[in-house]
Design goal:
heterodimer, A: alpha+beta, ten-stranded mixed beta sheet, B: alpha/beta, Rossmann fold, 2 domains, four-stranded antiparallel beta sheet, globular
Chain lengths: 865, 233
C-alpha cells in the first residue's frame, strides 16, 4: 500500500509510480459502481448465487447419508470398538454376552437384537430398526447413557426416535394414548409408545427411524426368544489386541463374524458406493454447470466492465496494475457476496429437498435423513463461486495489452467489447471437435476418465457455441428473406451485434441441457435396468408373501400352514434371502427354490449362458455372483468361491457373473436348498405362491389374506404389486439424481432469464428508438421473445448433441464401474422434457419484463444521444 | 397541416426540487417550414421535442396535429408515429449488423407492407439521400454522417409530414453537417414537410426559416437575425 487515495481524473505522472490502490478507495469505487449499475450488479449477483446454490445444494445432499450414518453408528455404539455379529438372520444365543464380558481384554459388553419392523398408527406406517438392548447397554456410553432412555427396561413399551415418530404423526415429546401396531418377522402386535425422542434426548440419532426397547421385549416381539444379533464390546485400555483375539475365537467357535464398529461404516460405504459414484458423477456435472452459470452471469457484465476499464486507463490515468486491482476487487466483492447468498439458498434448498434415505439401504443400515453441512462445503462453494466470478470478470484485462485499450470504447463491429470474428468462431469450433475426439479415444481406452471426458465435453460445448449460434442466426436470416416470414430482423440484429452476450446465454442453456440429458439419460437407463431386473426377479411366481415392507425378502418368519390347500393355489415354495458380509461387502444372498420358473434374471447375466446357469443352479452347489466381487476375486464362470456361511466356510462353483441385481454391494444367487444347509435354517424369508391355471391372482391373494387373518404382519401381494413397489423403491433410490437434474435445469433457466432481463434493460434506449419509429409494443415484445427463443434454440441444439454423448458415456461408466444394470437406451423425445422445462421457464420469466421493456419511454432514446 | 403546441408545460421533480423543463411553451409549425429550436444544454429543447412527438405527456397544455390531439399511447400513437412522424436522433439508432437495403424499409414493414416492397422503398430512399452505393453496408461500416443520412432515408420511406430532429449534426464535422442540413432544408422547402430541429449549433440555426430560442424552459422572443445567435454550450 504505497499510494493512490482516490482515482486521479487526469493522467498524473506522480501516480504512475503508485502500485496499489487503497482498500478504502476500492470500496469507494465499488460503491460508486453499485450506485450507477445497481441493477446490472444485482442481476449478475443473482446469476452467480444461482450457480453457487446449485453446487452447494448438490454437495450437501450428497454427503448427508453417510455422515448421518456415521453419527448414528457412533451414538449407538458409544465407547464400544469391537462387535460380534450374526452371519444369518436368525441371530445367536444372547447368553454369549457373558462369555464376551469374561473374555480377556474386554471391559464390558452388551447384547443387542436388531431387526426390521413396521409400525402403524392410525393410517400412518413407517419401517424402523427395532433395537432391543440389555441392561448393560448404558455402560457403553453414547446415546445409551442418556437419562431419557432409562425407562427402556422398566416400562412396557417402545421408544421412538423423532424420525419414526414424525412418520406416524407423533411429534417429539408426545406419546399416543392408544398403542401402535408393530409387525416383526411376520408377527403383528400392539405395543405402547413410551416416548418420542428428539435431538435433545438422543442427539444425532433423532432423525433416524429407530424403535428401541429392552432386549427381552424385542425378543418377544420378534419371536427370537433368547437370541441376539450383535454384541458390542468395550475394550480395556491397552488390551485391544487381547480383546480382538478373544472375540475372534468366540466368533469362530459360534459361527459369527467379528469386526470393529467402524466396519459397519465401511460396509455402508461399499453399499452406497455405486450410488455415491453415480451421484458423484452427476454432482460433478451439476457442479461444473453451476460454476459455469456463475461465470456466464459475470460474463454478461463484461462489455460494460471493458468500457469502464478503458475509461480508467484513458481518462482516469490508472496504471494497468491499478486498473486490474480495481476490476478484480470488484469481482471478488461481488463473487463473495453472491456466493454467500448462494450458499444460504443452497442450504435451504438441500434442507427442503431432504428426504428419507433410499428405502433399500434402510434394510441393512441404520441411517438418518438429516442434512449435514460441513465447513469445507461452505468454503468450497464460496471459493469456487468467487474464483469463477473472477475468471469471467478477468477477460477485459486482455485490453490492457499494448494498443488494445481503445477497443472497448471504439468497437468496430456491433457493440464494443462484443466481437467474435468468424475466424475465431471456426477456430474455437475446431478446437472443440479436436477435444471431443481426443477425449473419446482416451475414454475408450481408460473408462475411468469418464468424468474428465464429460468435463471436456462441456468445455467443448462452450467452445462450439459461437459456431452453433452463428448457424441458427444464418438459418433465421434465410427465413427472414421470405416475403411473409415473421420479422426476425430485430432479434437477428441483436444477436449479431452482441455475440459474446448471446453466446454466453446460449452456452448456459447448452451446458444445462447437456448436464441434464447426461444425468437424466443415465438415470433412466439405471431405472429401466433395475426395473427389468425386478420384473424378472418377482416374475418367478404369481403371489409373494413376505414381511410387510421387506422389499428384499430378508426377514425370516414362520411359514403359515394350510396355504397350499386354499382354492386356486397350485404350489407354495419357500424363498430364502439374507445379507452376508464378505470382506467389507454386505452382499444380498438370494436362495431360490429350484422349482422356480427362472433362477436368475436372464437380463442380468453379464458372463455366462442363461440355460446352463439355470440348470446348474437347480442342480445345487453352483451360484452366481456380481461382477464387482468377481473382479475383486478374479472369478470367472466355472471358478470356485468360498462363502463364510453361518455353518462355516462353504465352497461353491460360479455358474455366471451378473450385475449387482440392483443391490449396490452385489448379490449372490443360489438354490434355496443350498441356503438352508449353509445357514442352517428352515425359516423362509418369503413364500412364492403359484396360482392354478385359470385362477385369478388377485382372488387367490385375497383368499390368502383372509386365511392369514387381520393380525398377521405378513404382506401378500401379486407379482404386479411387488413390481410396482419395487419401482417406487428404485425411484426413491434414484430420487437424488432426479433432484440434481431438475435443480440444474431450473437453475439454468433462472440464470438465463435473469441474464435476459439484464440484457433487455441495457437495451431499452435502442428499444425506445424502435418505438419512436412506430414499432408497436407487441412487435417489440415479439422481437425480444424471438431473440430469447433463438438463443435457447442454439443452446438446446448444442446441449442435445453434447448431452446425448454425455448420456452414453455416463451410462457406460455406470455399468462398468458400479455394476448396476443400466442398458443404454435413447429416444429422440428424451430431450423434450429438459428442453421444454428450461425453455419454458426462461421464456416465461423473460416474457413479463420483456413486455414492460417493449414500451420504453421515448426519452431513453433521446437521453442516450 | 400544422403541429401546434399550446401553453405546454412539463415539470420534473429532481431531488425534491421542481425543474420546469418546459414552461408554458406555445408554437406552431406549418408544412414547408424549417424551424430551429435553439438553446443551451439543459434548456428543455429535447423535452419539448419529445412532447411534440407525443413521446411524453405534458403536465398542462396540449399538442395537436392538424387540430387533432397527438395520441400519447396505444395503437393510435404507434400509427401516428409510423405514418406522420419521422424522428432523427443525434446518434442514429440503426439496426446493427443488418445491411442498409434490408433495414431502411423496416418502418414500412412495421406498417404491414410486404417485405419485398418495403425493401424496394428503402432502397429508393437510400438513393435519394445519396447512399445508393452503400446498400450492402452494415451500420458499423458507415461513417457517422452516412449513418445519419441512412436514418433520414429510413424516416423518408413512410413519407412523414412532420420531421423532428434532435441535434442531428451534433456528432458531425462541418462539411458533413452541411450535407445533412441540405437534406433537411430540401425536405422542408422542396417536399413540403414540417421540420423542427433542436440544436445548439448556430450554423444549423442559420439555415432555418424561424429560430426559436429556448431558455429555462421558456421561449424568448423570436430571433429575427440569425447573426444574433451565439454558440451555445
Amino acid at each position: 500500500m504505497t499510494g493512490a487515495t482516490a482515482p486521479p481524473t487526469e493522467p498524473d505522472r506522480t501516480r504512475e509510480t503508485a502500485q496499489w490502490v487503497r482498500i478504502g478507495t476500492l470500496l469507494t469505487l465499488y460503491a460508486g459502481r453499485l450506485r450507477r449499475q445497481w441493477l446490472q450488479e444485482l442481476l449478475a449477483a443473482a446469476g452467480i448465487a444461482t450457480g453457487v446454490m446449485l453446487v452447494f445444494a448438490v454437495l450437501a445432499a450428497n454427503t448427508s447419508i453417510k455422515s448421518s450414518a456415521r453419527e448414528i453408528a457412533t451414538a449407538i455404539s458409544g465407547r464400544a470398538e469391537l462387535q460380534l455379529g450374526a452371519l444369518g438372520g436368525g441371530g445367536f444365543d444372547a447368553r454369549l454376552v457373558e462369555e464376551v464380558r469374561a473374555a480377556p481384554g474386554v471391559e464390558t459388553a452388551s447384547a443387542l437384537l436388531q431387526t426390521r419392523a413396521n409400525l402403524r398408527h392410525r393410517d400412518d406406517r413407517v419401517g424402523v430398526d427395532l433395537v432391543g438392548v440389555d441392561g448393560s447397554y448404558a455402560q457403553l456410553g453414547g446415546v445409551s447413557a442418556r437419562p431419557a432412555l432409562f425407562g427402556i427396561f422398566s416400562l412396557p413399551g417402545i421408544y421412538l426416535t423423532a424420525g419414526a415418530g414424525d412418520a406416524l404423526g407423533l411429534p417429539p415429546g408426545s406419546a399416543p394414548s392408544a398403542p401402535v401396531a408393530i409387525d416383526v418377522r411376520g408377527r403383528n402386535r400392539e405395543i405402547p409408545v413410551i416416548g418420542v425422542l428428539g435431538s435433545h434426548e438422543v442427539g444425532p440419532v433423532a432423525p433416524a427411524t429407530i424403535a428401541s426397547t429392552s432386549l427381552e421385549r424385542a425378543q418377544e416381539l420378534s419371536g427370537m426368544r433368547g437370541r441376539a444379533t450383535r454384541i458390542l464390546a468395550v475394550v480395556r485400555d491397552g488390551e485391544a489386541e487381547a480383546a480382538r483375539t478373544s472375540l475372534e475365537r468366540i466368533a469362530r467357535d459360534n459361527g459369527l463374524r467379528t469386526s470393529t464398529v467402524d466396519d459397519e461404516l465401511r460396509a455402508l460405504s461399499i453399499a452406497t458406493a455405486p450410488n455415491d459414484q453415480s451421484t458423484m458423477l452427476f454432482a460433478a456435472i451439476a457442479a461444473i454447470v453451476g460454476l459455469l452459470l456463475t461465470a456466464m452471469a459475470m460474463l454478461l457484465t463484461v462489455p460494460e466492465r471493458r468500457r469502464e476499464l478503458a475509461r480508467m486507463r484513458i481518462v482516469g490515468g490508472f496504471t494497468s496494475r491499478q486498473a486490474t486491482q480495481v476490476l478484480l476487487s470488484q469481482a471478488i466483492m461481488l463473487g463473495l457476496a453472491s456466493s454467500a447468498a448462494g450458499v444460504l439458498a443452497g442450504s435451504l434448498l438441500a434442507r427442503s429437498a431432504a428426504q428419507a434415505p433410499p428405502g433399500y439401504l434402510t434394510f441393512a443400515f441404520p441411517i438418518g435423513s438429516g442434512v449435514d453441512i460441513e465447513p469445507w462445503m461452505v468454503v468450497a462453494a464460496l471459493l469456487g463461486g468467487t474464483l469463477f466470478t473472477c475468471i469471467a470478470a478477468a477477460t477485459p484485462l486482455a485490453d490492457l495489452r499494448s494498443g488494445r485499450a481503445l477497443n472497448a470504447i471504439y468497437g468496430t463491429g456491433g457493440q464494443p467489447g462484443q466481437g467474435i470474428s468468424p475466424r475465431l468462431r471456426w477456430q474455437l469450433a475446431a478446437v472443440a471437435v479436436a477435444l471431443v475426439a481426443a477425449a473419446s479415444v482416451v475414454v475408450a481406452v481408460w473408462p475411468g476418465t469418464t468424468l474428465l471426458t464429460i468435463g471436456i465435453l462441456i468445455v467443448a460445448t462452450l467452445l462450439a457455441m459461437p459456431a452453433v449460434l452463428a448457424g441458427v442466426v444464418a438459418a433465421a436470416t434465410r427465413l427472414e428473406r421470405l416475403d411473409r416470414a415473421p420479422p426476425l430482423v430485430i432479434p437477428v440484429a441483436a444477436l449479431r451485434s452482441a455475440p459474446v452476450r448471446s453466446v454466453a446465454l446460449a452456452a448456459t442453456c447448452a451446458v444445462a441441457i447437456c448436464g441434464a440429458l447426461a444425468i437424466g439419460g443415465a438415470r433412466t437407463d439405471l431405472f429401466d435396468g433395475i426395473e427389468q431386473d425386478q420384473r424378472e426377479h418377482y416374475g418367478t411366481t404369481d403371489i409373494w408373501i413376505s414381511q410387510r415392507g421387506d422389499a428384499l425378502g430378508l426377514q425370516p418368519f414362520r411359514a403359515p400352514e394350510g396355504l397350499a390347500a386354499l382354492p386356486g393355489v397350485a404350489a407354495v415354495r419357500e424363498y430364502m434371502g439374507g445379507l452376508l458380509d464378505i470382506g467389507d461387502r454386505r452382499m444380498w444372498v438370494i436362495g431360490r427354490p429350484s422349482a422356480d420358473r427362472t433362477m436368475v434374471p436372464p437380463s442380468q447375466i453379464r458372463d455366462g449362458n442363461y440355460a446352463t446357469t439355470t440348470a446348474r443352479l437347480r442342480a445345487g452347489g453352483w451360484i452366481t455372483v456380481s461382477d464387482q466381487l468377481a473382479r475383486e476375486r478374479g472369478i470367472a464362470p466355472g471358478s470356485k468361491i468360498e462363502l463364510p456361511t453361518p455353518t462355516g466356510p462353504r465352497t461353491f462353483r460360479v455358474a455366471a457373473i451378473t450385475t449387482n441385481l440392483g443391490w449396490g454391494p452385489g448379490a449372490i444367487v443360489m438354490r434355496a436348498e443350498d441356503y438352508r444347509e449353509g445357514w442352517s435354517t428352515t425359516t423362509p424369508t418369503a413364500l412364492e405362491v403359484d396360482v392354478a391355471p385359470g385362477a385369478s391372482p388377485t382372488r387367490v391373494r385375497d383368499a390368502i389374506r383372509a386365511a392369514l387373518g387381520p393380525g398377521t404382519g405378513l404382506q401378500v401381494q401379486t407379482t404386479a404389486e411387488n413390481v410396482a413397489d419395487a419401482r417406487e423403491i428404485v425411484s426413491d433410490g434414484l430420487a437424488r439424481l432426479r433432484q440434481i437434474e431438475t435443480l440444474l435445469l431450473i437453475a439454468a433457466a433462472v440464470a438465463i432469464a435473469v441474464a435476459m432481463i439484464a440484457t433487455i434493460r441495457e437495451r431499452r434506449p435502442q428499444l425506445a428508438a424502435y418505438a419512436i419509429e412506430g414499432w408497436s409494443r407487441f412487435a417489440l415484445w415479439r422481437a425480444l421473445m424471438g431473440e430469447t427463443a433463438m438463443i435457447l434454440l442454439a443452446g438446446c441444439l448444442a446441449g442435445i448433441a453434447a448431452g446425448t454423448y454425455g448420456h452414453y458415456l455416463g451410462g457406460r461408466w455406470l455399468e462398468q464401474t458400479t455394476s448396476f444394470p443400466a442398458p443404454w437406451t435413447w429416444s429422440p423425445l428424451a430431450a423434450l422434457p429438459a428442453c421444454g422445462l428450461l425453455a419454458g421457464v426462461a421464456l416465461l420469466v423473460t416474457a413479463v419484463p420483456g413486455y414492460l421493456a417493449a414500451h420504453p419511454r421515448g426519452r431513453l432514446a433521446v437521453d442516450r444521444a | 397541416m400544422t403541429l401546434r403546441l399550446d401553453r405546454v408545460s412539463r415539470h420534473f421533480d429532481v431531488g425534491g426540487e421542481t425543474v420546469r423543463a418546459v414552461d408554458g411553451v406555445s408554437l406552431t409549425i406549418e408544412r414547408g417550414e424549417l424551424i430551429a429550436l435553439y438553446g443551451p444544454s439543459g434548456s428543455g429543447k429535447s423535452t419539448l421535442l419529445l412532447l411534440a412527438a407525443g413521446l411524453d405527456r405534458p403536465d398542462s397544455g396540449s399538442v395537436s396535429w392538424d387540430g387533432v390531439p397527438v395520441p400519447l399511447g396505444g395503437r393510435a400513437a404507434d400509427r401516428w408515429r409510423r405514418d406522420t412522424l419521422g424522428v432523427l436522433l443525434q446518434q442514429p439508432q440503426l439496426v446493427e449488423g443488418v445491411p442498409l437495403h434490408r433495414s431502411a424499409g423496416l418502418r414500412l414493414e412495421a406498417r404491414g407492407m410486404r417485405r419485398s416492397q418495403a425493401r424496394l422503398a428503402g432502397i429508393r430512399a437510400l438513393r435519394e439521400v445519396g447512399l445508393g452505393h452503400r446498400l450492402e453496408h452494415r451500420p458499423d461500416q458507415l461513417s457517422i454522417g452516412q449513418r445519419q443520412r441512412a436514418a433520414i432515408a429510413r424516416a423518408l420511406t413512410t413519407d412523414p409530414a412532420l420531421i423532428l430532429a434532435d441535434e442531428p449534426t451534433g456528432s458531425l464535422d462541418s462539411q458533413t453537417s452541411a450535407q445533412i442540413v441540405d437534406l433537411l432544408d430540401a425536405l422542408a422547402h422542396e417536399r413540403g414537410r414540417a421540420v423542427l430541429i433542436v440544436t445548439h449549433d448556430p450554423q444549423l440555426a442559420h439555415r432555418a426559416d424561424r429560430v426559436l430560442r429556448l431558455a429555462d424552459g421558456r421561449l424568448s422572443e423570436p430571433v429575427h437575425d440569425p447573426a444574433d445567435l451565439s454558440p451555445q454550450p
